[in-house]
Design goal:
Elements: E1 7-12, H1 15-25, E2 29-34, E3 37-42, E4 45-51, E5 63-67, H2 71-80, E6 85-91, E7 96-102, E8 108-114, H3 116-124
Parallel strand pairs: 1-4, 5-8
Antiparallel strand pairs: 2-3, 3-4, 6-7, 7-8
Amino acid sequence: MILRVWDVTLTVSDLERAVDFYERVLGLSKKYQFSDYAGFDCGGVEIGLQPGTPPETQEGAPCLDLLVRDVDEVYRALSEQGVRFLKEPHDTPWGGRIALLTDPDGNRLQLVQIDWRKYFTACAS
């Protein structure tokens, strides 16, 4: 059966532009790149980028959550680099502080900071 998530692959319209965003702007480490794919390490899970026609973003579209230590700090740093946010940092009832952004192709990425004490309390109730 399933052991763990190995890879999440996103469709991008311009591979070089997307590689620049994930490597330079988000600071992910590129593992390798071919003409039709680039792979980045994200805490042991690969984020893959594959050229194609990205689907139109719609409400309820898939979202890739990225765990960070300080959502507000990362929000400020990415905003200064021109990253487009759909939702500014805000608290959740389950102990998270989150901010929603998109990559250059509209793929949804969410910065997540977790107060583990609040999270486990919310899960237990």
